[in-house]
Amino acid sequence: LAKDLHHSCQWGSGIRWGNDPTDTGMQRLALSAEDKSVRDWFIQTMKDLKCEITVDEMGNIFAVRPGRRKDVPATFIGSHLDTQPTGGRYDGILGVLSGVEALKRMDEMGLETEGGVGVVNWTNEEGARFPVSMISSGVWAECIPLSKAHNLQEVPTVASLPTAASAPETMKTALQKIDYLGSVPCSYKTTPMAAHFELHIEQGPHLVSAGQRVGVVTAVQAYRWFRLKVVGRDTHTGTTAFEHRADALFAFAQMMVRAREVAAAKGCLASVGIVEVAPGSVNTVPGQVSFSLDIRGPETALVAEVEKELRSDFDAIAAKEGAGIGKPCRVEWTLDFDSPAVKFHEECIDCVQQSAHAVVADAPVADTKSLVRPIMSGAGHDSVFTSKRVPTSMIFVPCKDGVSHHPEEFCSADDCATGASVILQAVVRYDRK
Amino acid sequence: LAKDLHHSCQWGSGIRWGNDPTDTGMQRLALSAEDKSVRDWFIQTMKDLKCEITVDEMGNIFAVRPGRRKDVPATFIGSHLDTQPTGGRYDGILGVLSGVEALKRMDEMGLETEGGVGVVNWTNEEGARFPVSMISSGVWAECIPLSKAHNLQEVPTVASLPTAASAPETMKTALQKIDYLGSVPCSYKTTPMAAHFELHIEQGPHLVSAGQRVGVVTAVQAYRWFRLKVVGRDTHTGTTAFEHRADALFAFAQMMVRAREVAAAKGCLASVGIVEVAPGSVNTVPGQVSFSLDIRGPETALVAEVEKELRSDFDAIAAKEGAGIGKPCRVEWTLDFDSPAVKFHEECIDCVQQSAHAVVADAPVADTKSLVRPIMSGAGHDSVFTSKRVPTSMIFVPCKDGVSHHPEEFCSADDCATGASVILQAVVRYDRK
Ligand SMILES: NC(=O)NCCC(=O)O
Ligand SMILES: NC(=O)NCCC(=O)O
């Protein structure tokens, strides 16, 4: 598994942080040239394992190892091969590679299943290049219209994106460019699944700080992504008193400070990742600022409350900046993505839990069950969308310091192997039900 | 004058704000193709007025109408033809065009002067494309080394800069590209002046709100330009609690809010015009933010005090963000430009004051002298650097709402004409001394 995983990371390896050949992060933005290379490798690997391959209109790749029965859909292991611009080697990649590993193990063991067992690579899960996360599992679940996804434009400023120089691409042109615009409709009706299991690093500190080995993911927190625009007035930095300014950037700065206060008070998160400032000159007070806002919380209603409070607070901040000249700033919100809180499927959760207990059973501790815990996911995953249509659940393994979306993101080979064993067993358990 | 001024604005006309042909802003960044066109026009116009033309190593263009005596340097009228990315039609342009107008009037009147009278167009006064303002008068005054200026790189993100796609250019390559890298050394020793006068819009609200017509500029406030870099840690927006973050953007936001507080308390200004955020992904907490900081104040010591206080406050803000994980943010400062406060030359100030009183003498008010006032400049001008080597002063005329570095920057044809009359008389007065 570790060998395959790092082999697949040759395409798009990113920022180096140590001396070992594998001590680099990843920069494999969705539908980039590097993403094409790893996709080609994935398909070839699955063909060598005698899988049937389907590529749909969103470039999702489904590889199925047939089972005894042809009349039931396969049970899938899925995740994504795309990464953040300064991402690591485990987020998503571990999930897909654990699927490859599972099929290899099943072949070695000569294991026959009732239904087939599949591995799926979902397109643009990160939402880093095209700013809607999990968009292609969303189209598959018929929660996001195909046309909306195809027309979605890439983020223009994403770090070192090779295409950043030219006009921003849409998902459709990017799919065409790397030859991954399949002809099969992207839908759970056309490419059905019996269930969807996903192995992922936790991306948070709970497992690692408690010394636990497996998280049985029962739920995913809610989140909403917005694009905001603050419009003020360009003016001279040297001659314009503060009271005469409608400084869109100063308004933004206050908004960001306020966003953390409001979110923290409600046990939620609020984060800004992208900022664009115009016109962008040392001695011109910026008249326009656009930025992304990512609000998360354990309950959908809490996220809505944070949004509501921030809408009113941001209006107040904007109204004050420029009031002195009767030209206050104004702020516009656009909702890009809305992912309500999700609860996973009891049966899938049970399969994962039993498998996890089995895998850690011979650990050298008194109470091996304490190495396994139920957990809520802070991040979104393709399993959020598959769960809307088919039984779904997830497995978390610890990652160093709980850090991800960072080149130094790290999951030990042992933890990777534990996760892969759990997902293989969970799939087999589910298939037997 | 108005005709010539708007004629010259055909090259690089910017954002439209009204229906009249001249109701647009300007976007003529230094050494752009548009800047080349207006330079070519300027040289041809001055040749038609029988001027001798000199282009130096910084692309400064000196045009001299000879006087009776060949043994004394000319008295110059100077300013700049470059603009902000979202600039207007008067900042700098009025100053150069008033020089053209003055020479035309002198020819019409058949006026002979003792020394010659020159008009100079200084390169990249704005500091918008190459982020050191007044850099070419700075080299001429031997206050900035030629090599530093030639190697200065353009700001990569300046709005709609046609070259932004490719690697950033240096001033030297940009000068070569538009064929304005002259062979004459850029120095007050090689191209001497008897004095330098500059007409400019005020760019502030004092004249216009007091209903006054001419500002006799006696001084220029101090300013310093910095580039700052905040380094934190990239991490996941959905899984990373606030206490586990070293969010470089959140640190920046607090710094910007603090900068205004500190500057305001000392009667100074602090402004941020450029911000770059990396890696630039909705769901990654930014690990790096670079930004420009422009600090100004009526006294050099006050600017230094603001800087000192902000250095310590920014360190404290950075130290707090990320303290929870033992990886606090850190902040680095680079000084790009330092312009101490300046006092202009008594004799030049007198020439301007007497001329201003003469020009407004037949205004229909009881006390015409009240239409003229001494004033300090909030903005920097090429006169700051010429004042280090030759007698210098400036004339301000009102501009609408005190707004500049904005497409709607406006100065009435009457006010332009008043300013042009004052500068012509001031030059003639100085020549006679
Ligand atoms: N797991 C992960 O990083 N997914 C990206 C979507 C999100 O931002 O939560
Ligand atoms: N007058 C003017 O806008 N000059 C640019 C230098 C400055 O920022 O003050």
From TrEMBL, chains A, B:
Gene3D superfamilies to which the protein is assigned, alphabetical: 3.30.70.360, Zn peptidases
Signal peptide residues are: none
Question: Which parts pass through the membrane?
Answer: none
Q: Which GO terms describe its molecular function?
A: hydrolase activity, acting on carbon-nitrogen (but not peptide) bonds, in linear amidines
User: Which InterPro entries does the record match to this protein?
Assistant: Amidase_Cbmase, Bact_exopeptidase_dim_dom, Peptidase_M20
Keywords noted in UniProt: Hydrolase
Short name of one Pfam family for this protein? Peptidase_M20
Judging by the UniProt lineage, the source's domain of life is Eukaryota
Listed SUPFAM superfamilies: Bacterial exopeptidase dimerisation domain (SSF55031), Zn-dependent exopeptidases (SSF53187)
> What family name appears in the similarity comment?
Belongs to the peptidase M20A family.
- Output this protein's name: Peptidase M20 dimerisation domain-containing protein
In its UniProt entry, the species of origin is given as Penicillium canariense
